[in-house]
Each structure stands twice: as structure tokens, then as C-alpha cells.
């Protein structure tokens, strides 16, 4: 489903991604962990080209992006339709109602008529447990509710892959639970998911694979139970100890 | 005191007519100047360097030149180039140009103040550049710009008093001409001041109200 080959990205002389390669199967849930600055978020943001990699190749579904060549607008649009993204800071559109947040791109990008978009939006709001908030504005909702709506908004584009960039990091632990519950349900439904997270429990329970990144590369990956409980790499051991001790 | 009231009642029709001209001038200049400001704000961010530089020059000229100089250039200067505009037309051209230049900076800064994450969210949903501008950047940016734009509009209304120097019969020139025949300058100018206030004060309240309403949904 996703294939990344030798992806490189640097800002000036600071290397963020140092030739990263990874294959992700359809339906697989991958949790990416690692210290901040490891390049997890950058890798994720390269997948839908919010960040432009310097070189390498990204394949998502049938869409192939070869860097550093110029990316055609159509490729960009297809890629972003295929991959939905959920941000750490939700990024709901504050001037639009919850319903409009979810339906806008359905109408504008997918060309759905208003009625179909409305219906699909309500289904998705139902799914994340917030159908009663359809008429509210984002500022009136808690962070956890906002993030669940952001998930619904991304799902409305019928993506084949969902990218999560630290979806619960801006939430206090209790509010994060509702978001994690929605993500569990999504994983169970067979969605291909890449989740950058510090939630070790979530990684352990829900993911099919844990990928540990440090210093712009993948240093260890594999079965969650194995990577999280008996990591081979000393850097991973150190990181997990720090996370658990907190 | 009775004399003063009688005088004021005598002068009022002429001054109210003048006020009408002032308001018209301000409204027409805003109707032309605001879209101009939006266009300039967008062109200043153009990827084309030449477009960017030309727009920047126009904006800096509009902001850097005293409005009175603009007025004189257009009313007295253009005829020597074979272009004669009536006083109202000249005033509209000068004030629209000035409005475009000032508001372009307000709008540009407001568009830049829209959180980057919203633009990214739109991009991640596959919304193209035009859609992002139309549905996200513009509506969010305008909300940020409203207070400053309303402030500018009130200031522009006061600036219309300058056009009495090109003999347009707006409020101040009516007051001045009454003054020059009656020598009651203080009295008639005070009345003119009151009439200006009758527009600027409610406008200020309206601005505050609008700001509150538009900010209703925002955190």
C-alpha cells in the first residue's frame, strides 16, 4: 500500500531524513515512535507531500512520486485524496460549523452534491460519536471532540490510508481516550494507518508493527510486543525506559 | 444661545447636503479601494518578481505620498497631460488609490496571520490553492482584518475633508463658505464637527459590534 524508498530530507545542513525506506501493507497499522527530532513527523508529512522530500521515491496505492523531479498537480491531488491526515493541533476550520468542516472538501474536491455530502458527514459524525455537534463551531468543543471531528473530516474523503501526527499529544489523558477509541475502531475496520505517537499502550494494543526512529532513520522495527518489551537496540531501550519512567 | 440655535438651523440644510457628499465620496472610494487593496495584497505575494515589484512600488507610492499631494496631482496635474477629471472624480481616484495602498497592507498581514495549520489541513484534504483561498484563507483573513479595516474606513471618512481644497462641495467646504460670508467660523465649524461625529461615532460602535459578532465562533 505504501512504499518509501531512500527518502532524504534536510533543512540547510541539518539532515532530518537520512535515506528512509519502509513498506507498509494494506490494512496494516504502523506505530512510529522515537524521540522528538527523530524525523517521525517529517516522514509522515512527506507521505502526503506537506513536506517536500529532497530525494527518494514514495508510492501510495497507484500513485508514484519520484523526487527530486517536479510533482505534477494531479499527482499531488491524487496522493492527498488517497491519504487522509490528522494533525496534532486538529486544525479544524474555526469559521465553519462541524458539519461544514466535514462536508466542504467532499463537495469541492470529490464533487459530491450537497445532499450526499451532508448524509456522508452525518454518518461519519455518528461514527465518531458526535452527530449531536453537527451545528456547533469548533471553538465550542473540547480538544478530544475536535480531534474526533478532524478524523471524520479526513475519513470523508474516503482515503485508503490514514496518517496520524501525534493525534493525542495536545490532549489531556482523559480526552485522549475517546480519540484513541475511535482510532482503535478504525484499525479494527481494516484501515491502513500510520500513527506517530507517544502512546506506548496504543502502539502495543492496536498496532501491527512498531517502528522506532532516531536521528533521521529507522533503527528498529517489528512486532509491538517484541520491540516494546525487549528491544534489541540500546537507543530504543533508553527511549522506552524514559517514556515508561515518566 | 437662541441666536446660535437659529444660526445652526439656518445652516443645517446646506451642511447636511455637504455631509451627503462626504459620505458618498467615502463610500465610493471604499467600494473601489477595498477590492483594489485585496488585489494588491495578492499581487505583492505573486511568485512573479516583476509583478511583485511593480505592485510594491504602487503600494509604497500610495502609502508614502500625502493624500493632499495625490489630490493635487490628479486634479491639477492630470489636465496638463490632457486628462481632465471633475472634482468628485479626482477625489474618488485619489482616495481609492490611497485606500487600496493602505488596506492592501492590512489585508496582506491578516492573510499571513491565518494559522499555517489551517492551510495545511486544506492541502491535506486535497483542496487546491484557489479553494484554499476562497474557503479558508479569505474568510479567516477577513475576520482578522475587519477591526483594522473599519478603523481605516472611519479615518478615510475624515480624510474626505481634504477635498474642500479642490472645491468639492462636501461638508467642510460648505462650512468654510458659510464662514467666509458670515464670519461665524467657530460656530459653523463646530457644527460641522458635530456632523462628522454623527457619522464617525456610530461607525465606531458598529465596528465594535461587528468585530464581536465575527469573532463569535473563534476561540
Automatic annotation (TrEMBL), chain A:
Entry keyword annotation includes ATP-binding: yes
PROSITE patterns per the UniProt record, alphabetical: ABC_TRANSPORTER_1, ABC_TRANSPORTER_2
Sorted UniProt keywords: Amino-acid transport, ATP-binding, Cell membrane, Membrane, Nucleotide-binding, Transport
GO molecular function, one term: ATP binding
Domain ABC transporter: 2-240
Compartment list: Cell membrane
Pfam families the record matches: ABC_tran
Keyword Signal: no
Highest rank taxon of the organism: Bacteria
Membrane topology: Peripheral membrane protein
PANTHER family per the UniProt record, alphabetical: AMINO ACID IMPORT ATP-BINDING PROTEIN, GLUTAMATE_ASPARTATE IMPORT ATP-BINDING PROTEIN GLTL
Family: Belongs to the ABC transporter superfamily.
Protein name: Amino acid ABC transporter ATP-binding protein
Source organism of this protein record: Microtetraspora glauca
Amino acid at each position: 500500500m505504501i512504499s518509501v524508498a531512500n527518502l532524504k530530507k534536510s533543512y540547510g545542513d541539518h539532515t532530518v531524513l537520512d535515506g528512509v525506506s519502509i513498506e507498509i501493507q494494506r490494512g496494516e497499522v504502523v506505530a512510529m515512535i522515537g524521540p522528538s527530532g527523530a524525523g517521525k513527523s517529517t516522514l509522515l508529512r512527506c507521505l502526503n507531500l506537506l513536506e517536500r522530500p529532497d530525494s527518494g521515491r514514495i508510492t501510495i496505492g497507484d500513485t508514484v512520486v519520484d523526487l527530486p523531479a517536479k510533482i505534477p498537480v494531479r499527482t499531488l491531488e491524487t496522493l492527498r485524496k488517497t491519504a487522509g491526515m490528522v494533525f496534532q493541533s486538529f486544525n479544524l476550520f474555526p469559521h465553519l460549523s462541524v458539519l461544514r468542516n466535514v462536508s466542504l472538501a467532499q463537495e469541492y474536491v470529490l464533487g459530491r452534491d450537497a445532499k450526499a455530502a451532508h448524509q456522508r458527514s452525518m454518518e461519519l459524525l455518528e461514527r465518531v460519536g458526535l452527530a449531536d455537534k453537527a451545528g456547533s463551531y469548533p471553538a465550542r468543543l473540547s480538544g478530544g471532540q475536535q480531534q474526533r471531528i478532524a478524523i471524520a473530516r479526513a475519513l470523508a474523503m474516503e482515503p485508503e490510508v490514514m496518517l496520524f501526527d501525534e493525534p493525542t499529544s495536545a490532549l489531556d489523558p482523559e480526552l485522549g481516550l475517546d480519540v484513541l477509541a475511535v482510532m482503535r475502531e478504525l484499525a479494527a475496520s481494516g484501515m491502513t494507518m500510520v500513527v506517530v505517537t507517544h502512546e506506548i499502550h496504543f502502539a502495543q494494543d492496536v498496532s501491527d508493527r512498531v517502528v522506532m526512529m532516531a536521528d533521521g532513520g529507522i533503527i528498529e522495527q517489528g512486532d509491538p510486543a517484541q520491540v516494546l518489551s525487549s528491544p534489541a537496540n540500546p537507543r530504543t531501550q533508553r527511549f522506552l525506559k524514559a517514556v515508561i519512567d515518566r | 444661545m437662541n441666536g446660535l440655535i437659529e444660526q445652526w438651523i439656518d445652516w443645517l440644510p446646506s451642511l447636511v447636503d455637504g455631509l451627503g457628499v462626504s459620505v458618498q465620496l467615502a463610500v465610493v472610494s471604499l467600494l473601489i479601494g477595498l477590492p483594489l487593496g485585496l488585489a494588491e495584497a495578492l499581487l505583492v505575494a505573486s511568485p512573479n518578481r516583476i509583478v511583485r515589484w511593480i505592485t510594491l512600488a504602487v503600494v509604497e507610492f500610495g502609502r508614502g505620498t500625502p493624500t493632499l499631494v495625490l489630490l493635487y496631482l490628479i486634479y491639477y496635474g492630470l489636465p496638463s497631460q490632457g486628462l481632465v477629471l471633475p472634482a468628485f472624480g479626482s477625489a474618488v481616484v485619489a482616495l481609492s488609490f490611497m485606500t487600496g495602498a493602505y488596506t492592501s497592507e492590512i489585508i496582506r498581514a491578516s492573510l499571513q496571520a491565518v494559522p499555517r495549520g489551517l492551510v495545511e489541513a486544506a492541502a491535506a484534504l486535497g483542496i487546491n490553492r484557489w479553494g484554499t483561498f476562497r474557503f479558508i484563507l479569505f474568510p479567516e483573513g477577513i475576520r482578522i482584518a475587519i477591526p483594522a479595516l473599519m478603523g481605516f474606513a472611519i479615518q478615510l471618512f475624515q480624510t474626505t475633508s481634504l477635498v474642500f481644497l479642490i472645491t468639492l462641495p462636501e461638508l467642510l467646504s460648505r462650512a468654510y463658505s458659510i464662514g467666509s460670508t458670515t464670519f461665524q467660523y467657530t460656530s459653523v465649524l463646530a457644527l460641522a464637527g458635530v456632523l462628522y461625529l454623527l457619522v464617525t461615532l456610530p461607525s465606531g460602535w458598529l465596528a465594535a459590534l461587528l468585530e464581536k459578532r465575527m469573532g463569535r465562533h473563534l476561540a
